[in-house]
Design goal:
The protein is mainly alpha-helical. It is built from 30 helices and two strands. Strand 1 and strand 2 form a beta hairpin.
């Protein structure tokens, strides 16, 4: 466009130069008119101004074209129309100027100035028209810009709406998945089959990957199935997702406790309690862990806290009773276990523990039998209860019943070396030495480090007159457990048979050092001392035994024999008479008292008293013959 305006100006200047008109002043409506040079100058300024405005408009349109691609075509069309009009006018003007340059100057040379003015007016009109069209184009451009702005705002609004729709869609999809996940979770909590429950929890987790409770519960099911590693992984994930939840820490502690990692188990229980200071189960498990770590007082504090939080929790009383027993508070332990049974009469372990206290500490064997029997009734597969009841039957000399319970124990627990060992001991006591040897060999096969089995087998070999084999077994038992008193005692008996009383006394001294409250050992030592005529020392040892247990007839018989060796027959008769008051069918007691009566009769100078003593001796002889109940000689 700029080029066309410039061409028009150059043509005007050419015409003026061609005709060679002289400048002069022309008056129009009383105003002084400038010469054609001045007119040309004015035209040039107008054209330059028009060009400048047109250039500005073009720059504006070009800027618009860059900003609004959608409307560039429209703007180009408007500009094209304007350029076309200008071109037409310039063509016309060129023709006119050509005519004016050739014909009109010849005819109308004097009107040249008026013609130029009209031509200038036409140019101005063309310029005004061009300016108007430019303004219209500018207006259209502004409208186009506004339209673009409106479209951009509309597009932005549409984008926001689409984003909201997408977010709502995602949220709705997530909510729908979570709803289904919760449904699976609810079904899993009531599912009894662990495998099916695990599948349901897995489905819930797939739909809701941050479902901490589902991971925790799935871990519980895996734990019940024995998949401890899988359970531990689930608890770890639950803690990662929800670190402020106490239960996963509590459950992970159970796995760590079962795995023997007591330190980590304690840390996790501490964390569970930190999150939930009223978590009674966490206190309970921490008490169990502290007991494993030999922190009995710490365990007692935790069980006290459990009972404070939950006064009716039977297992807390049972565990506290166990701790009290370990702290030698026997009565306190018994009270707690009784309380445990009061709150839960179906807990077989409570009856079992109470039975152990009655057996080991109260010598209440009938009460112990009752508790062990109840434990077995509640749990027919409770091997420990059968084993302990067999111990009681053995203490009550009910050997066949004891053997039956040991056999059930072995059936439930085939690798129970102690059951074989104890059964072998009983068979030895009833004279079934070969069967006893079979049981004891099996016990040693199962557990080559079982000192009790070697000791018992030594007793059997001794009864089979295999003294060297017996000593080897006693030596092995002492090698395995040098703090075990019984093999020292039994080896001492063998040494007596092998005419080594000094070695025997040395072994008895060692045994008594290990078990200073074992009355039986004092009795055995007294018998050895009696055999080597150390009667005063023998009397001292048997008196120690009787101080510990004055109801044992064997001890009185031993003292009777010592008194007899010391010629103290009246004191011997007193002991034997006491024995017969406890057991009137004991043959050996009548035999010993017969000897005492005859010894006194031999020394009695009074014939009447002598005859009385002989009569009493003969009466005891008859009673000895009429009874078959043997006792120790």
């Amino acid at each position: 466009m700029k080029t066309r305006y410039t061409l028009a100006v150059l043509m005007l200047l050419f015409c003026l130069s061609f005709f060679g008109q002289q400048p002069k002043i022309v008056s129009i409506q009383g105003q002084p008119q400038k010469t054609s040079t001045q007119v040309s100058t004015n035209q040039q300024e107008s054209i330059k101004q028009l060009q400048a405005e047109n250039e500005a408009m073009k720059a504006q349109l070009e800027k618009m074209e860059k900003e609004v691609e959608l409307y560039r075509g429209d703007v180009r069309n408007e500009t094209s129309k304007l350029n076309t009009n200008m071109s037409l006018w310039l063509a016309v003007l060129t023709i006119i100027m050509t005519i004016l340059g050739v014909i009109v100057p010849l005819i109308l040379s004097r009107r040249n100035e008026n013609f130029m003015e009209r031509m200038l007016d036409d140019v101005k009109q063309q310029a005004n028209s061009a300016e108007k069209q430019a303004q219209e184009a500018a207006t259209q451009a502004v409208q186009a810009k506004h339209a673009v702005t409106n479209i951009e705002e509309l597009k932005k609004h549409v984008t926001e709406i689409e984003g909201k729709i997408n977010r709502d869609t995602i949220a709705a999809t997530k909510a729908a998945k979570e709803a289904v996940a919760v449904k699976y979770f609810a079904l899993a909590t009531i599912e009894k089959d662990p495998v099916s429950a695990i599948e349901l929890y897995t489905a819930a987790i797939k739909l809701k990957p941050d479902f901490a409770e589902a991971y925790n519960n799935r871990g519980n099911k895996k734990q019940k199935k024995g998949d401890l590693e899988g359970a531990l992984n689930d608890y770890n994930e639950a803690i990662r997702i929800k670190a402020n939840a106490a239960e996963p820490y509590f459950n992970r502690a159970k796995i760590e406790l079962m795995s023997g990692d007591n330190k980590r188990a304690l840390e996790d229980c501490n964390k569970a309690i930190e999150i939930n200071p009223c978590y009674s189960d966490a206190y309970y498990n921490r008490g169990i862990i502290k007991r494993e770590l030999k922190d009995s007082n710490g365990a007692l504090d935790d069980f006290n806290k459990v009972i404070e939080l939950n006064p009716n929790q039977s297992k807390a009383y049972l565990s506290r009773g166990t701790i009290k027993y370990e702290l030698n508070d026997i009565q306190g332990a018994l009270l707690d276990i009784n309380k445990s049974i009061e709150y839960d009469r179906n807990d077989h372990s409570a009856y079992y523990n109470r039975g152990m206290i009655k057996k080991n500490d109260l010598n209440d064997y009938k009460g112990a039998l009752s508790d062990f029997t109840m434990a077995i009734k509640l749990n027919p597969s409770y091997a420990d209860a059968y084993f302990s009841r067999a111990n009681v039957w053995e203490m009550l000399d009910e050997y066949e019943k004891a053997i039956d319970d040991y056999n059930i124990t072995i059936k439930l627990d085939p690798n129970n070396a102690s059951a074989y060992s104890n059964k072998g001991r009983i068979k030895n006591n009833i004279g079934k030495y070969d069967e006893a040897l079979v049981d004891l060999n099996e016990s040693i096969r199962i557990n080559p480090q079982n000192a009790f089995a070697y000791n018992n087998r030594g007793v059997v070999k001794m009864n089979l007159s295999d003294n060297n084999g017996a000593i080897e077994d006693y030596n092995k038992a002492i090698e395995i457990d040098s703090g075990y008193a019984s093999p020292y005692c039994n080896r001492a008996i063998i040494k007596v048979k092998l005419n080594d009383p000094i070695g025997a006394l040395s072994d008895f001294d060692k045994a008594i050092d290990l078990e200073p409250t074992n009355a039986e050992m004092y009795n055995d030592k007294a018998e050895i001392l009696l055999n080597i005529d150390r009667t005063e020392d023998a009397l001292k040892e048997i008196n120690n035994a009787l101080k510990m247990n004055n109801k044992k007839t064997d001890y009185f018989i031993t003292r009777c024999m010592i008194y007899m060796k010391m010629k103290r027959f009246n004191e011997a008769i007193k002991d034997i008479s006491y024995v017969l008051s406890l057991d009137s069918d004991l043959k050996v007691a009548y035999e010993h008292r017969t000897i005492c009566y005859r010894q006194l009769a031999d020394e009695e100078p009074d014939p009447a008293k002598k005859a009385e003593l002989i009569a009493m001796a003969e009466a005891d002889e008859q009673k000895a013959k009429s009874t078959n109940k043997e006792g120790e000689a």
